[in-house]
Amino acid sequence: MSTIPTTFNIPSYTVVGGTERAASTGLSAVLLNRGGPYSRRGLFQALEKAGFDYIVSMEGKREHYDLEDLSGRFPFVRFILTKENLSPGEEINLAASELLSPLFFVLWNDYRLFNGINAQRISRLFLRNGASRICTVPVIQNSRFEVLHTLTSPLYYRNTVKALPGLPEKENQPSLFPHDWVGIYGREAFLRIGGFDREIKTGHWQLMDFGFRAHLWGERIHSTQLVRMVYDGGAPPADSTADGSYRLFYLKNLAPVFRDDHGHLPLRRFPSCLAKTGWDLLTAWEEFFHERRWVKENRSRFRSDARTITDLWESAAGADENGGPDY
Description:
- By secondary structure, this protein is α/β, with parallel strands linked by helices.
- Helices cover 34% and strands 23% of the residues.
- The protein has ten helices and 13 strands.
- The strands form three sheets. The protein has a nine-stranded mixed sheet with strand order 1-4-3-2-5-10-7-11-6, with helices on both faces. It has a two-stranded antiparallel ribbon with strand order 8-9.
């Protein structure tokens, strides 16, 4: 059975370069681009020195006149050009489909690796359990070397879910989703749950959907103190407006219940759906049944429901913390 048929529907794209492998560590890098006055050459050199197998640089539909020069200088960099602008989650999906490394490290062009980051060392740590963890969140600091609030905890508030930011203070703390999409992903687990949902365009709800689906389906997202990065840009604002992306997130993650041994979206949830989404009656009915079919197709993947996850979050975090790292 396909995990999420609409999620990994890869758009048309063109590949430039990436003909050589720089190392054999089992860890590749996926570089997302926000633009800005950042040295691509300097970042590629740092990634090469760190020992990544390949680098996938997501170029979007922008025109770059330096690709021929860069691909000649860095033959292990695979530049991906798309015919349309994609969300960060869609770009990560595309990059994951291009790579074969069991692990891939997602970062932006306005991040810097701490000196001493070694891809082989990271691989040894995170492949010990067969890359079973879907994502590990590194420590991120700003340009003043202050640690950012990169961990997220879910909290029910007025019958909806809020994302509470927190500081990474210890090894192996749980997080609802990877901050700013940055993290070390296990490719097998990432593909297993279908990656990021391309139907959800708003960044905040795309991350919330990925994080909740991962936890609802039995995957884990934890932090590590062993990998650190510096963020040179300004913190991007999170848009948590209850738009169309929120409506899809709600139907796929918050509305389903877990009964017996599977997920289920009961008909009694429809009035709440109608009230929360703001759709007219016909649109809400059609969308509700569309997502109800989706939940039914994936019912055996559910291991819990959203309310249980949020209720048990604090105790689960304490249990993992006491148990220590589980690489």
